[in-house]
Amino acid sequence: MKTPLTISAITIVFSINAQVKKLNDLSDVLVEDSSLYVGHTPIYTNDAISNVAIGQGTLSLNTKGDFNTAIGQDALFSNIEGYSNTASGYRALFSNIEGYFNTASGDSSLLKNTTGVYNTATGSMALMFNTSGAYNTATGCQALYNNLTGFNNTASGYMALMFNTTGAFNTASGNLALYSNTTGSMNTATGYMALISNILGNYNTATGNMALFNNTGNMNTASGNQALYNNTTGNYNTAFGYKAMASAVDATNQTVIGYEATGQADNSVVLGNENVTAVYMGEDSGAKIYAGEGSFTGNITIGGDVVVSSDARLKANIMSLGSTLAKLLLIDGKTYTTRRDGKQKIGVLAQDIQNVFPELVSQDDDKMLAVNYQGLIPILINALKEQDAKISRLEQLTKELITNE
Question: N or C: which end of the chain has fewer CB within 10 A?
């Protein structure tokens, strides 16, 4: 004779059966082939393994994709064969079909991704429209929002690289950094709104808030708050310092260094703003300086010798100047007062030299004349020799006259 169950034991059995029935009826949990589905009815024809799906619509169409993790309503909804993806958030990686090794965390992050691989999106709508782009990293709300096929991009900050579509190898760090970029590549922007207007420009580097703000050009480097802010289509420019600017919006190959320094001309270098009074080329002012032509508007003080290269091996078509005394006598030394500072000076007039020795006169971009004073030395040497010869002849003639007496 069987022992009847007590009322207490019967109550426990009924409670357990009720819980099991509730789980089965709702189909809320299925653990099969090391996969875990919570919150929806999985497809029983699914051959995939090691997937985790939590939330309504997660991994709903998955048949062959393995090692996926989807948490949030409709996360990885369309995935069929993609594997090793992680989606966390409402409709994260919603459209993914074959993409793999993607990580999406945030509402609608990597929403449109279908075949893209090795993408990481963290933030609401980050990399939202990416379809086949690969190796992208987006951190921040709407970072790399419009990216379609661009690859190897890194965006960190609200709307950083937001409109990038096919641009590659870009790095944006800061809210709205490289915001407008679409197809530009190899750009680096660090700071709030750095390179914000860049669309097609390539190989630009901006470090500082609003650095290269208006840029659409190429191969520019700006470091400092609002550095090269005014540059639009200019190329090959370099600026270091707060509000260091090129001379024009389409400047070329200008290097500008210093607080609020402004470039002066293409293919030139500016060190410091108008308040700079000295430039040292070494801590002890002893560094060597190598340069081509130079133009100075002030006095030059040199503590050592002035040495001019004059090796015969550097010259061709060498001929003697011959007689120069007659021409030299046409030049008159002058005293004058400079208009710039009113100082009294001694020198010559370029126009006078130009009439006699045009080789010694040059003209700058403003059509102002300059004299090569060093070039007067050989003229003086020849004139001195000519005069010495005359004196020698006179001395000889005087001796002959004295002897004949």
Answer: N
Say how far residue 271 (Cα) sits from the centre of its chain: 20
Kindly list the distances between the CA atom of residue 277 and the CA atoms of 103, 254, 260, 272, in Å, as whole numbers in the listed order.
56, 21, 15, 9
pLDDT values of the chain reduced to their tens digit, one per residue, 405 residues: 444 444 454 454 445 455 445 444 444 444 445 677 776 545 444 578 899 999 999 998 888 899 999 999 999 999 999 999 999 999 999 999 999 999 999 999 999 999 999 999 999 999 999 999 999 999 999 999 999 999 999 999 999 999 999 999 999 999 999 999 999 999 999 999 999 999 999 999 999 999 999 999 999 999 999 999 999 999 999 999 999 999 999 999 999 999 999 999 999 999 999 999 888 887 766 777 887 777 777 778 887 888 888 899 999 999 998 899 999 999 999 999 988 888 899 999 999 999 999 999 999 888 999 999 999 999 999 999 999 999 999 999 888 888 877
Judge whether 109 lies within some domain: yes
- Look up tokens 């090795």; give the residue: 118
Residue that has been written with the tokens 């951190």 in this structure: 139
Residue 286 lies inside a defined structural domain of this protein: no
d(CA 90, CA 71): 8
How does 101-113 read in b/e, with b if 16+ C-beta sit within 10 Å? bbbbbbbbbbbbb
Q: Rounded CA gap, 310 and 375, in Å? A: 12
Q: How many CA atoms lie within 13 A of 313 on its CB side?
A: 0
99: its two tokens: 């993409």
The residue out of 84, 117, 150 marking a domain boundary is: 117
CA 187, distance to chain mean position in Å, is: 6
Residue range of the domain that includes 359? 321-405
Residue 314 forms part of a structural domain: no
Question: Could you tell me if residue 350 is inside a domain?
Answer: yes
CB 72 within 8 Å of CB 88: yes
Domain boundary among 117, 137, 157: 117
Q: How far apart are CA 368 and CA 297, in angstroms?
A: 12
pTM of the predicted protein model: 0.74
Name 98's Cβ contacts closer than 8 Å, sequence gap at least 6: 80, 81, 82, 114, 115
- How many domains, the chain? 2
